[in-house]
UniProtKB/TrEMBL annotation, chain A:
<dbReference type="InterPro" id="IPR016135">
    <property type="entry name" value="UBQ-conjugating_enzyme/RWD"/>
</dbReference>
<feature type="active site" description="Glycyl thioester intermediate">
    <location>
        <position position="119"/>
    </location>
</feature>
<keyword id="KW-0833">Ubl conjugation pathway</keyword>
<dbReference type="Pfam" id="PF08694">
    <property type="entry name" value="UFC1"/>
</dbReference>
<protein>
    <recommendedName>
        <fullName>Ubiquitin-fold modifier-conjugating enzyme 1</fullName>
    </recommendedName>
</protein>
<comment type="similarity">
    <text>Belongs to the ubiquitin-conjugating enzyme family. UFC1 subfamily.</text>
</comment>
<comment type="function">
    <text>E2-like enzyme which forms an intermediate with UFM1 via a thioester linkage.</text>
</comment>
<dbReference type="InterPro" id="IPR014806">
    <property type="entry name" value="Ufc1"/>
</dbReference>
UniProtKB/TrEMBL annotation, chain B:
<dbReference type="InterPro" id="IPR035985">
    <property type="entry name" value="Ubiquitin-activating_enz"/>
</dbReference>
<feature type="domain" description="THIF-type NAD/FAD binding fold">
    <location>
        <begin position="65"/>
        <end position="319"/>
    </location>
</feature>
<comment type="similarity">
    <text>Belongs to the ubiquitin-activating E1 family. UBA5 subfamily.</text>
</comment>
<dbReference type="InterPro" id="IPR045886">
    <property type="entry name" value="ThiF/MoeB/HesA"/>
</dbReference>
<protein>
    <recommendedName>
        <fullName>Ubiquitin-like modifier-activating enzyme 5</fullName>
    </recommendedName>
</protein>
<feature type="region of interest" description="Disordered">
    <location>
        <begin position="376"/>
        <end position="415"/>
    </location>
</feature>
<keyword id="KW-0862">Zinc</keyword>
<keyword id="KW-0479">Metal-binding</keyword>
<dbReference type="GO" id="GO:0005524">
    <property type="term" value="F:ATP binding"/>
</dbReference>
Amino acid sequence: MEGWDPTTKSTLTQIPLLTTKAGPRDGAAWTQRLKEEYKALIAYTSMNKSNDNDWFRISAANPEGTRWTGKCWYVHNLLKYEFDLQFDIPVTYPATAPELELPQLDGKTHKMYRGGKICLTVHFKPLWAKNCPRFGIAHALCLGLAPWLAAEIPILVDSGMIKHKDDAASSSEV
Amino acid sequence: METELKEILNDLKSLQNSFSDPSLHSQFDKIRCRIESLVSLAKSGPMHRSKVKDMSAEVVDSNPYSRLMALQRMGIVENYERIRQFSVAVVGIGGVGSVAAEMLTRCGIGRLLLYDYDKVELANMNRLFFRPEQVGMTKTEAAVQTLSDINPDVVFESYTMNITTIQGFETFMSSLQNKSFNPNKEGSGVDLVLSCVDNYEARMVVNQACNELNQTWMESGVSENAVSGHIQLLVPGETACFACAPPLVVASGVDERTLKREGVCAASLPTTMGVVAGLLVQNTLKYLLKFGQVTSYLGYNALKDYFPTMEMKPNPQCSNSACLKRQEEFILAKPARDAAARTKIEAEALSSTESPVHADNEWNISVVDDSEFGVTNTGSSDVLPEGLAHELPSADGYENLPASEETSNPLDDLDDLRKQLETLNAEKS
């Protein structure tokens, strides 16, 4: 973890770790895991809100909790850029991490696989593998998606690949 | 088109006959020659061969299997025609999978199951098999189109879906179990699964399915820099599964500001992919038709032309529970395996009246079997010499974590937790 900025590190230590090693095909154990996922997400979301660093919304799109949809956003030069966020829980979860998708950015950056799956190979997958089964969805957002947005959005905005929704009206709202 | 050209030719003849001037004849002949060459061109257009009932060894130009059946005459394969009973599943129809599927099709495999969810793109044209006019089609659809033209005897099944999703995985499992092609087959409905996918997640899914079904499979891969590759045979319980030896995990603690911007787009070469597909299908043929030695791992380093081989035993602490179950079954079946091996050796000894290589044994030299089970762990000991320390934690570390009292709280309700998150989501920050 050396090399991560102190804020990310201290945030990470406050997200509850998970204990149940179970995937969506494991019946009752998966329900238990799902509860732990919710607790971690609730803790992370409320922490972000109290630190004035709210940056995503995510909720299960089906009762089994195998598909998740929501939004994430990033503020660059005082403008807020918001994107749809979605992912499936893979059948081999938690041995393999969920593949986070930002479908609106598909084809706009090289740091992405087909379908808008963001590239997590270098900065996140090793951490996930090392911390299986203690990391969950909240950790994937904190250590996978957040750094990706921080690295990619400024470049995408500066290069003109993405435009702010109020761009035409030269708005200054945050 | 052919008939129309012939009509023109007839018209030309009657026209020629109506002119008596011989000076025009050479002109007419020229035109007739050109039309005749067009007729032969029209004849040689796309030809579709019909299905063949039995593979024949007859050496004629029109027999699609004569060169394959010759393997029997050469003493390489005992019964080549058995290949028509076999089903092979190819997962991932990319640079390796499509070529492997074509090779198996040309070899006359009985049934091919093809899995992929991608579409053909122009960026795929540096590899073999797909053609520019197929851009936009799904890879499975384009593959079946080409392959069924090449060999209509093969039964094709295509599955356009992502096997890493729950739904995709269920379809994947049931397609492997379907025995309608060969109802008398033991075990699953396929003889071999070939993994030709390009990512870790999908390999783990194939591994999971094959461990659960006790299905032998082969894994293949080409490195991101396109200059090395490998193939590997995985027999659940007997050899290492894909989760037994996880890829080297290096948590380098990358700073987000230094994230590489290139690197997602992997390099690829038709040569390396073709070589790996060739190695994979060669091993498949050896495994199915029982000739030569089936390799358990074969690497290919293109820069140095180095082909390492090795064998990997399963990991008794593998994180995959289905793998552990298969390992247990394999150990339990050892006596039966030994007995079978013994009778085989005895049968061979009977058929060849063998005399001892050496009549006397002055020094009492005897050969000891060192591959016995259970002796592999003798070397390891927890006691280390002074000054050395174990760097890695003991394997079962996380199991001993004190279970948090929260997890066992029966008052936790999933719906409650869901509502809590929704409330948080609805609040303005």
